[in-house]
Specification:
Layout (H helix, E strand, L loop, with lengths): L6 H5 L4 E5 L3 H7 L3 E3 L2 H8 L5 H10 L3 H17 L6 E4 L8 H17 L7 E6 L2 H12 L4 E6 L2 H9 L4 E4 L1 H12 L9 H15 L5 E4 L5 H6 L5 E4 L1 H8 L11 H4 L11 H10 L1 H30 L1
Helix pairs in contact: 3-15, 4-5, 5-6, 5-15, 6-7, 8-10, 9-10
Length: about 325
């Protein structure tokens, strides 16, 4: 008698699984294709004793706090790439979210650091906030063969603008959309009625209907119900706790998103220039608030990382 597949194994038939963590041991145990990191995840990981050598190496090999921070992010990425077969996402400094030139320069620097470590740029995704300036920076970087993962994405207009400039991948945030609507309406949602799930489904269907090659990676999940409702999405980036829940269940997983059925959806093609982007984003209170909040959170954790590096250097 064959052993039934767990939900994580079933999901792998429909979507690429990505680990949303900076913890190497946890990445190994779930065998994801790709992995994503951000300042928040690196900050958590670097507090652990087993990752102190990476902190020490960044301090030893770089001259100042800015360079040490970048090197630390890259050192984590290099170690993760030894474990996974695919790509790792490394975050550009969120303080540059409204600065086109500085974002481009920072992304180039991160790629150069990876290449000095022998990592080809094809295995790196530079995460950039989905502001207008960030999206235009991604356009320039894409021309140079630097692949971008557009993060802090909460609306269709952001997704369309990203696809129009040809970015490699977007990471729409399911859970943060859910959080906003739960707070606004004072209620929980069934997975099929979850505003975050509905938003990502719409983006996925739009991309497939109009033949955009940009990959959709649903991110920021609050529960496995959200994940299962997006089975079939190109990629799903999942935290270790939810990966474990999926491993522990053998309930049947059904494919919910499909490129063929997306063609039948009644969606109008959007024409997005800067004025349209800014207006429609402003009209979407949830997307405006969550984008601003997300940038602030990432900036806060970058500052904490810098303080940690400064403290360790002074020892």
């Amino acid at each position: 008698m064959s052993v039934p597949l767990n939900q994580l194994q079933q999901l792998r038939k429909f979507s690429k699984i990505v680990a949303d963590t900076g913890d190497f041991e946890l990445i190994q145990s779930f065998e994801p294709v790709d992995a994503t990191t951000n300042p928040t995840l690196i900050l958590k990981a670097v507090q652990k004793e087993e990752y102190k050598p990476l902190l020490e190496k960044a301090i030893k090999d770089a001259k100042n706090t800015r360079q040490r921070l970048d090197l630390l992010l890259v050192l984590f990425g290099v170690e993760i790439l030894k474990i996974i077969p695919g790509r790792v996402s490394t975050e550009a400094d969120a303080r540059l979210s409204f600065d086109f030139d500085a974002t481009v320069a920072h992304a180039r620097n991160l790629i150069q650091l990876y290449e000095k470590k022998g990592v080809p740029r094809e295995r790196i995704l530079i995460k950039i906030a989905s502001t207008w300036e960030g999206i235009q920076a991604a356009r320039e970087l894409t021309k140079e063969g630097i692949r971008c993962n557009m993060t802090l994405l909460f609306s269709l207009v952001q997704a369309v603008a990203c696809a129009e400039v040809g970015v490699q991948l977007i990471s729409p945030f399911v859970g943060r959309i859910y959080d906003w609507y739960k707070k606004q309406e004072g209620k929980d949602f069934l997975p099929s009625e979850d505003p975050g799930v509905i938003s990502i489904s719409r983006i996925y269907n739009y991309y497939k209907k109009f033949d955009y090659p940009t990959e959709v990676m649903a991110a920021s999940f609050r529960n496995t119900g959200q994940i299962l409702e997006l089975a079939g999405c190109d990629l799903l980036t999942i935290s270790p706790s939810l990966l474990l829940e999926l491993q522990q269940s053998t309930s049947v997983v059904t494919k919910k998103l499909d490129p063929t059925s997306a063609k039948s959806h009644q969606l109008e093609k959007m024409d997005v220039d800067e004025k349209t982007f800014r207006y429609l984003l402003n009209e979407d209170a949830m997307a405006t608030e969550k984008l601003a909040e997300g940038i602030r959170i990432f900036v806060s954790d970058i500052v904490k990382l810098e303080k940690l590096l400064t403290y360790e250097t002074a020892k």
